Structure formats: C-alpha cells, structure tokens
Amino acid sequence: MNNEFTILVVDDEKKILDVIEAYLKKDNFKVVTAVDGEAALDALSKETIHLIILDLMLPKLSGEDVCRRVRATSNVPIIMLTAKAEEDERIDGISIGADDYLTKPFSARELVVRVRALLRRSYRNTIPLADVLSFNNGDLEVDIKKVITKKQGRTVALTANEFKILTIFLTSPGQVLSREQLVEKAFGIDYEGFDRTVDTYIKNIRHKIEDNPKEPKYITTIYGMGYKFIPNPNEVK
C-alpha cells in the first residue's frame, strides 16, 4: 500500500538525498526530491504530497520558512532533519509545525520506520486520497487540489478556513472530532481563535453543503463530544 503515498524529500546534500530516496523507493514509496526551499514549494504546488522530509538548513528558503508556509495552507505531515541536537531547536521545530524530528547523522532505516508510523497516524481511517472526492453519488464533490467544492454540480463558495475544516472531515470519515482537534488539525496548535469559532465555521459549511442545514446529514453533531462526517448519508440506516 506504500505506493499510494508520495513523499517529498528536501535536502541540499545530494548524498543524503540519494540515500533517503533509495530507502523510501525500496519500501515502495513514490518519491519527489528538492534541493532548496523554493524548489520544495514548487513541488508542493505541482504534486499531491502525503508527507515531507524537510532539512532545516536549505539554500534560497530555510526549512523553517518552508514549514511555516506549508502550515499556512496544509496539514501534510512533516519530519524535520537537522544537525542541531539541542532541545530548544527541537522544540522550535515542533512549534512551527513539524510532526517529528530527526537529528543528523541518522539511520535511514529508522527514518523509514518513522515515515511509516507518521503516515499511519496521519491517515488512519481516511478515505482514499485523490484530487477529486465524491460523496453520496455525486451530491457533494470536493476538488482538493483546486480548492473547489460543488453541491449537486454547482460550485459553492467556501472561505479558506471553511475549506480547511471541511478537508479535515473528509480525511476522517466516521471519526468523532472535538473542537480542539479540529482547531489543531486545521489551523495548528498556535491558533489564537476560540474553539467556539469552529461552531460558526461548521454552521456556514452546513448552509452550503447540506440539503437542510437544520437537519444536517454530512456533518453531524455528537453531543458532548464534537462532530462527525458521514460520507454517504443515504447509506446510513
């Protein structure tokens, strides 16, 4: 199943890049490589990437800046690579959005194990990853890459934050998500808004994708716990 996932590896040291690429391909992952920060962002704009292995010390655009820019629009898992072993450096990496941290020199075998573990955590119980997702016999369609949502064939205008929230639901079908989980997954742990703002986003999304927002079928409320996305409500009995 690993060949369903594409890994972006970003490092300006060709030897390290080649070793990581070889080990990942041996484990049947698809691999895209970049040698600087700008090339990494360019690859992200052209490819569907499921995980990033990101060196901090990069030319043109640092790994920290790449991470911040990625986190502004995406929750793709990120493993940071660095020669800095200090605790403060690791904490800084996590605080700007890294999901895992590995200090150079490292074992390529350990890196692959961490990649597999992070993918399992990130995409557990997810729907098949594709550019265009269709639900309820085409009643609801979401183009992840183009950021377009359609209800019964008509485009509906979601704000950037509404689309982020909806995307979290799409990748966690049937899973109950608390407000805190939605905030962290969609906007990051440093988000300064209130948890209750999620209710407003969900109310707006419901008005745009539900047949009857007062009786939602896609995004249901699980009282005392949070919300759950039902991908094919007509099949639920």
Automatic annotation (TrEMBL):
Q: Which Pfam families match?
A: Response_reg (PF00072), Trans_reg_C (PF00486)
Q: 4-aspartylphosphate occurs at which residues? A: 55
Any one Gene Ontology cellular component term annotated for this protein: cytosol
Q: Does the keyword DNA-binding apply?
A: yes
Keywords, ordered alphabetically: DNA-binding, Phosphoprotein, Transcription, Transcription regulation, Two-component regulatory system
- Ranges of residues in domain OmpR/PhoB-type: 130-231
Name of protein: Stage 0 sporulation protein A homolog
Origin species, per record, is: Clostridium bovifaecis
